[in-house]
Specification:
By secondary structure, the chain is mainly beta. It contains five helices and 18 strands.
Length: 232
């Protein structure tokens, strides 16, 4: 078999503490999974079923330890937002996964950013249209090294923070997720068969805001280290 043009290489994220790489298959994102963030976006934080949107695998921008990622300010926006998130990496396939077995499917965790063209997202939302141009654009999913759950454990709590140019902007705890990692995995698997290589961005807390060229974001989660991103 020959391809009509060479296929793109697989997107892969470094595994912390080793030379291994985690190949990315799909990227799922949970919307409004912290009550305070739901309120700041103008929504009722009642515990309704979670909803999801996707980013393409090649939106993922992996970073190694000590590396400063550079992101070009994206086109067609004047309101480019950060959203700090815990990322769960799936390592075992399954559909209709039972809640009590859900964490068996999580291979590891990472620090991530769901970068958003907020003005375009809001415009699409107001028109009742999909969010892709606000969420699924190129290089919109920076992520740090993946830490195996066998080494760092699972996350029902842990501080999450984001700073811009040294000033605190987001500070919360994983315990404040409306839908826990296990609940998210179990619920999502009703609609999609999860496979090794899937990444789940689990949602962001309050404090989202805009950044511009020259701004430096530092994002961290307990046990997972930090991710540093500069907008250029």
């Amino acid at each position: 078999m020959t391809f009509v043009f060479p296929p793109e290489p697989a997107v892969a994220v470094p595994v912390a503490g080793s030379g291994d790489q985690f190949p990315v298959r799909r990227v799922y994102c949970v919307g409004r999974n912290y009550a305070a963030h739901a309120r700041e976006m103008g929504f009722d934080p009642d515990r309704e079923p979670p909803f999801f949107f996707c980013k393409p695998a090649d939106a993922v921008v992996p970073a190694g330890y000590g590396q400063v990622l550079e992101l070009a300010y994206p086109s067609q926006t004047s309101n480019y937002h950060y959203e700090a998130e815990l990322v769960a990496a799936i390592g075992k396939s399954g559909a209709d996964i039972a809640l009590e077995r859900a964490l068996d499917h999580v291979w590891g965790y990472a620090v991530g950013l769901d970068m958003t063209r907020r003005d375009l997202q809001i415009k699409m939302r107001e028109q009742g249209r999909p969010w892709e141009i606000g969420k699924a654009f190129d290089r919109s999913a920076p992520v740090g090294p993946i830490h195996p759950a066998a080494q760092v454990g699972h996350f029902d709590k842990g501080e999450l923070w984001l700073m811009v140019n040294g000033q605190s902007k987001q500070k919360s705890d994983i315990s404040k997720l409306i839908w826990s990692v296990a609940e998210t995995v179990a619920y999502l698997s009703r609609f999609f068969r999860l496979e090794p290589g899937d990444l789940i961005y689990t949602g962001t807390p309050e404090g989202v805001g805009a950044v511009g060229p020259g701004d430096v974001m530092r994002v961290g989660i307990d046990r997972l280290g930090e991710l540093t991103v500069k907008v250029v």
